[in-house]
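pasting for ref
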Amino acid sequence: MNIKRTSILLLGLMAAGLNLSAGKTVPLYRVFELRLENDKAYDNKFADVDLTATFHSPSGQSTDFMGFFDGNGDGTGDATHGMVWKIRFMPDEAGEWSYEYKWSDGTPGGQGTFNATTEGAGKGILKAYEQNPRWLAYNGTDPVWIKSYYETGHGSIAQDFGWIVDNVYQPLIDHGYNHVQVNWLLSLCCFGQYYLDGPEPETLDLALYEEGKASSTMNLDTWRRMEQHLGWFNDRDVGVHMFLGFDGARNESVDWTKLSDEEKDFYVRYVVARLAPFASIAGWNFVWEVDGTDEERELQLARLLMKYDVFGHLRAYEDEFPRENVYQYPEYTFAAVENHGIFAADKDDERIYWRSAFSHHMACLLGYKGKPVYMSEGNALWRRFWHPMVGADQEDLRRAAWACVTAGASFNWNGHAKEYELYAGGPEGLPFNDENPFRLSERYIQILTDIMNDEVIFQNMNPADALLGRHQVLDVYALAEPGRQYLVFSMDGNSFDLALEPGIYEAVTWIDTRTGQRQSFGQISIPAGEEAVPFEFDPPSTDTDWVLVVR
């Protein structure tokens, strides 16, 4: 018998930070993994034989999924060396699951069971909130306000993992971040971007595969490193958005279009087999700044993901000019936007507006096609690249963040300074130390987060600029659940009217977006039977930006 059934085992904690099944028990929304050894000789072990499995849930639902070749199972091996194949899965029902697996060349398969428990359960996959798809929710039902940071250490997966956890990832967790946008997943380029105040990288050979040859050149050491980092976030229910995505050509690396259709199919199947069982995948993305309509690039990828990702992770393309977008296409399940092309079609004419709050607000409004909008690359929100490019400062950053929120959108930001001179600490590092001037922006983002989590029921609210009057259109924005709750952001204390439905509003509060200090406005009572009444509001001062909360 060529398959060594005696070596079939369930792995537990194979690599630091990777929470896999232990014994025959796995928590809900965590990763079940089955390891198999097959000593048959294949010319190309990645592609010459397919390993597939069918999983049966406690309620009787069946799901087919794919296994993958993993060399020696420890990051070593290649297309001709290694005997380890793996099958991963993410259970979404508590109770006993059964499965059977088979090989496409007739090598004997097998079967087994495992128990999915609620103890230690993950939160699930981020999807559009079913009751209001402007917002995100675990499994579509449990709304979550995402606090997202752009972490840009391409080559950091080759640095000491413990150091990265202690100096980069854990500080993000400690400051309430539950979502990150990263460049190391998938690992395609820019490996010189690692933390210079950390240990030297163990290698800079981190390209995932050789151009045009995905099915025979997968770098298993890079896979091991990526999954160690992804697993750490998965264990902590932190969403991971794949910013650079599947195509390295935009960054002078391996080009998606140099793959044949068969190679593309393998590439996506292999990525999905390894990564889709991680609930923390919070957005497959082709690459930055494409049109969304290319049949051989982003649309082709999205259709392959639709075919193979049985768990239904979010799919996007990043639109540089969201004034004309195609997020209504079924291939895309959320919108990843920039804030270009709002005032003018030509970049040279447009660039002066890229730091403005209004361009962020409008980009998010225009990107909405019944699916969540995520400001993936806001020009006022990135100190790392855009602040020196467009002259944005921390006032612009705070205002851009509020402009996204009042458009019913999520966003990411970053407060470290450089691309190829990347630091975790100090004045140019992560914004969590007193040396870093962008510590102030971190405070601004936390004030915003607290307001959205504690002062309103954000998932019930929608953009409501139409309820405003007597205001500076570029400077005052509103969210509302009319008759129940309203939120208005006013720059420089601009006055405005807000049309309120009849009712008694007992909680009416001004909040300074710079300091978080609050001033009570008092109760507002509008008699029943009347139409919405414009109510005049004058913020407490004109020397800061205010948020008004009416409930």
